[in-house]
Amino acid sequence: MVKRVLALSSLAFFALASIMAQETPKPKEIKLPAPRLEAGRPLMSCLKDRQSNREFKPDPLPAQTLSELLWAAYGINRPDSGKRTAPSAVNWQNIDVYVALADGLYLYEAKEHRLIQVLNEDVRGLTGTQEFVKTAPANLIYVADFAKIPRGTDEDKRFYSAAHTGFISQNVYLYCASEGLATVVRALINREELAKAMKLRPDQQIILAQTVGFPKK
Prior knowledge:
The chain is an alpha+beta fold. It is about 35% helix and about 25% strand. It has helices at about 1-25, 45-50, 65-75, 155-180, 190-200, and strands at about 30, 75-80, 85, 95-100, 105-110, 115-120, 140-145, 180-185, 205-215. Strand 4 (about 95-100) and strand 5 form a beta hairpin. Helix 2 crosses helix 4 (about 155-180) and helix 3 (about 65-75) crosses helix 4. The longest helix has 26 residues, at about 155-180.
């Protein structure tokens, strides 16, 4: 009798586990195409044309453009070591790049060069106070993960995170100059509201956001 009860309990447990697994959908994944590393304009030309632009068309960015934008921002350029296109103190790599698109919020995973959906709702309007953020095709959100910095004061962590974000955002500016895209980096963000929507931990902090799209003119 006891064996029968145990067997039935085991069957019920595995059945419940199977149902729960079916009810927990796998996050949407966008595998990005490989970046064209031989593409683009000369560096000096890009520096000459680097500028902030706050007028965007609503047209979505093609997958190839999004791929190269993210790789230029903070992709892995030395696969043997995992080091990135932007410098990082002690190679902490503590900045996460999120992308707010019309169909949801995604986290860029540089190792696999892919996007993982973390929210299936349009949160572009939360990424800034200006009207254009609501309709521009892509808003990058730079989030510092203090858990990846094992030493130093909170002030040290904020300082390094701000510097790291600056390097990344400049990479985005140069890529946009090369490809004729509009971009502007922004600090006017309701960080508390956006962090709540993104379900960030207390030791994750939003540093800046950056809008990218095709210029209106």
